[in-house]
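WARN retry 2 of 3 for item q-0093 after timeout on previous attempt; input resubmitted unchanged.
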Amino acid sequence: MPEAFVTGLDDQTRHKMIDLLNARLADMVSLTLAVKQAHWNVKGPGYIGVHELLDQVADRLREGADLMAERAVILGGHAKGTVEEASSQTKLDAYPLEMQKIEDHIAALKERFLKAGEMVRDAIDDASDAGDADTEDLFTEVSRTLDKDAWFIGSNAAP
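OK item q-0093 returned
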């Protein structure tokens, strides 16, 4: 195992947090690629606004994934962020490839954002229970961003 750059956490806690970070990293990679799939294929009224929003959302997802990956390495682990790892480990459903309508993309993305947010909130609790306040705080930051982007995306749905 690589060198750890933290003190005050026992090996068992560090290993648990590394696994937790990598599990949620897989979801973030999967969600980022789903957002880009929608970005590339979305069509319909309001296209440009949704197209541009999804690019911004993908950037924020990559930032969250980067935080998780770096924290796993800081704790003495490896970041497991390849598309192959994400594909085999994500808890999110595969994103449909043939979808085009804005309303269909919005519904599919909103569902995935809500699921990812739920899993990250569970990770907040797990990190808190393990006594790793820094990882807990990282997940809290990611959770707020996921919730905000779920709102941005979901607000494009017809009333």
